[in-house]
Design goal:
With 406 residues, the chain is α+β, with helices and mostly antiparallel strands. Among the domains are: 11-122, 2-Layer Sandwich (Herpes Virus-1); 167-261, no CATH class. The chain is built from 14 helices and twelve strands. Strand 10 (371-376) and strand 11 form a beta hairpin. It is elongated. The two termini are 34 Å apart. Belongs to the peptidase C19 family. UBP8 subfamily. It is found in: Nucleus. One of its GO terms (cellular component) is nucleus.
Length: 406
């Protein structure tokens, strides 16, 4: 793609200005309103073949849409001698005399403004658009050539949390959530769309997004999560107050407050919380008369395990000492520990010290592959793998080693 535009586009702008491009980009590329999106869906067809082309272009000099792949726009150029066209998918200007897409600073500014308006109309924040340095910022970058690089030994993302009065139960869960790999990538990519149009300050997910920005900003000073605490009290009244609460109960309340429901199917949510944390417990009931099978799948966010004092299965997967029941099927097999270890990786451990009524919560967080840190409210200290293994482990957080894509 050319970087400095072309003489043909400059001549066109000198005669017609930038208004033709502004109208095309606003109405048929960015579509910053519901009406414009409907108009695009209805009107964006090739004027020659009447099909919705994959690479549809609009003539910049008259009202004509044509397919680029089928060369209908090329035929229009040959007949009308209109050599400039706009790609309706991306808004780029193509000059048929230069045989290339051409760049223009003014048109790029118009396109960026339209994208911001479109993002706002969809509920996205303005900084969803990619950052491009201004001339002043380019000069600053030239004068400061040093760049901060995140190495394998970097501890960016580790940050203490101030205890606001028996809020250690919240702090340890926040540490686990902010170090959940997929959740971290989601929020740092600014993928959240706020649905609290009247009062965005009441959106718990927006606050989580701000929390991720705080954790990964490089600031090492302990963060004060007072806004998060207020929103949790608002969304989960049973957790309001300064009494000691249960970390697991807060975890469920946090997921419930940040979980969105799919409009198309309320029984199947496709939000990021559901994709990361929700599993399915399948129950099959077999009719002894007709052998029909009735299957029910119940969603869950966690699995409660009763761990005995002794290990019943060895690590090699030998199930000779496992608990057994009488069954006629020969297809039942015990899942080995090694199978689970290859599929899931531990990245956070929440511990509780004390009694049911009172006590203190801490968390172990894994950074990179084998670096562990103990998070005790505002204190962050280095920990060993053995420290993690020796802890009791009230809540264990795992992530998949390999992700499946549908």
């Amino acid at each position: 793609m050319s970087t400095n535009g072309c003489a043909h586009l400059s001549s066109f702008k000198a005669a017609k200005g930038s208004q033709p491009y502004r109208l095309i980009h606003s109405s048929f590329v960015a579509c910053s309103s519901v009406e414009e999106r409907k108009r695009k869906a209805h009107s964006c067809i090739c004027y020659t073949c009447r099909q919705h082309g994959v690479r549809l272009h609009s003539c910049l000099q008259c009202v004509y849409f044509g397919c680029y792949g089928a060369k209908h726009i090329h035929e229009h150029v040959r007949m009308k001698k209109h050599f400039l066209a706009v790609d309706l998918s991306y808004g780029a200007v193509y000059c048929f005399q230069c045989g290339d897409y051409v760049y223009d600073t003014e048109l790029e500014s118009i396109a960026k403004s339209d994208k911001i308006k479109a993002a706002r109309s969809l509920g996205m924040r303005e900084y969803f658009c990619p950052w491009e340095p201004t001339n002043c910022e380019i000069e600053l970058l030239k004068r400061n050539p040093k760049r901060k690089r995140i190495t394998e030994n970097s501890t960016i993302g580790l940050r203490g949390l101030i205890n606001l009065g028996n809020t250690c139960f919240m702090n340890c869960i926040v540490q686990a959530l902010t170090h959940t790999p997929l959740l971290r990538d989601f929020f740092l990519a600014d993928r959240h769309v706020c649905h609290f149009e009247d009062d965005p300050s009441m959106c718990l997910v927006c606050e989580m997004a701000r929390l991720f920005q705080e954790f990964y900003s490089g600031n090492r000073a302990p963060h004060i999560p007072y806004r998060l605490l207020h929103l949790v009290w608002t969304h989960a009244r049973h957790l309001a107050g300064y009494e000691q609460q249960d970390a697991h109960e807060f975890f469920i309340a946090a997921l419930d407050g940040t979980n969105g429901i799919s409009n198309s199917n309320p029984h199947h949510c496709n939000c990021i919380i559901d994709q990361i944390f929700t599993g399915g417990l399948q129950s099959d009931v077999v009719c002894l008369s007709c052998n029909g099978v009735s299957t029910t799948i119940d969603p869950f966010w966690d699995i409660s395990l009763d761990l005995g004092s002794k290990k019943t299965n060895n690590a090699s997967g030998d199930s000779s000492n496992s608990n057994s029941i009488d069954a006629e099927s020969d297809d039942c097999e015990a899942t080995s520990l090694l199978d689970c270890l290859e599929r899931y990786s531990l990245f956070a451990v929440v511990n509780h010290i004390g009694t049911i009524e009172t006590g203190h919560y801490t968390a172990y967080i894994r950074q990179h592959r084998d670096q562990w840190f103990k998070c005790d409210d505002h204190l962050i200290t280095k920990a060993s793998v053995q420290d993690v293994l020796d802890s009791e482990g009230y809540l264990l957080f795992y992530h998949k080693q390999i992700l499946e894509y549908e």
